[in-house]
Design brief:
five-stranded mixed sheet, Fructose-1,6-Bisphosphatase, Chain A, domain 1, eight-stranded mixed sheet, binds 1,6-di-O-phosphono-beta-D-fructofuranose, binds magnesium ion, 30% helix, globular, D-Maltodextrin-Binding Protein, domain 2, single chain, 8 helices
Amino acid sequence: MDASKLALPVGTTLDRFIMRKQEDFPYATGELSQLLRDIALAAKIVNREINRSGLIDIAGAYGNQNVQGEEQQKLDVVANIRFIRALRNGGEACTIISEEDDEAIDTGNVQGKYIVAIDPLDGSSNIDVNVSIGTIFSVYRRVSPTGQPGTAADCLQPGTHQVAAGYVIYGSSTMLVYTTGNGVNGFTYEPSLGEFFLSHPDIQTPRTGTIYSINEGSSNSFSPGVAAFVRHCQDAQFSARYIGSLVADFHRNLLKGGIYLYPATAKNPAGKLRLMYECNPLAFIVEQAGGRSSNGYARTLELEPAACHQRCPFFIGSPELVALAERFLAQETVPAGV
Ligand SMILES: O=P(O)(O)OC[C@H]1O[C@](O)(COP(=O)(O)O)[C@@H](O)[C@@H]1O
Ligand SMILES: [Mg+2]
Ligand SMILES: [Mg+2]
């Protein structure tokens, strides 16, 4: 009997993978690696709270509205506290842009070189009904000198300046998927060992697919181009899949091929999703996996942010499907201001 068969390797931990990747960058100083570890630690704690959210008094509304005018759920607030605390204690982030905070947060880490934009809990409408939810994060290097708090210029950088981006999906299993601009890798959480293990190396998204994800409840106010594209998907007998948690819809389509669309609608004339901590990080990931992302006209990563919580229309997924949707929109007259 080959003894090694008795103790099969458990795999590559996230920590070890981060360290190995750091070696790819001769001038790396370990700060970005530490920041990614800080995010992973907070994700483990939030995962524990999500898994037992039905048992502890963590369900339901918190009783406040965030800057978006959305009712904050208790888990939105808990996740926000956990990630901010981990990033503040970790010392690498000087400023945090969070969906749940009106203003950018000065962490006090004046030597910190990084800005983190974060959606602490994505898919809030699905929190209390045991449907997959997530966390989305984006990392930029500051442009202002260290030794002082981060500035507005540090916060409002286009997506092309991201040095890392990722998401955590709290689903049937918990996964962390991230990129530092060197491919996309996915790690599955093993709760009994408290470790993320490499489970999805070098993710590549299929060039096309037969899944489309859009809230058809808003179809009355879809632009003619969006309506025509949705009809095309229906005529082609694509599968309509819409969980209502961006992270979960994006993750499925990333692995299987497909397109997620959140266009401008009467209810959300500028789109619903936020450029800095929802669209840019997922656009960085999808492009690193061979996919495509735009606002229907311009590449998401090249959009110039004017405000931390600005929204934008979002088309993301398999490159051929997103390009096709853009062609349908191009046949429309371009609405003013897009
Ligand atoms: O209910 P709608 O309008 O379809 O919107 C669903 C979308 O809104 C979101 O819930 C917005 O994110 P938050 O939950 O972080 O606010 C996305 O996850 C999801 O894709
Ligand atoms: Mg969100
Ligand atoms: Mg959120």
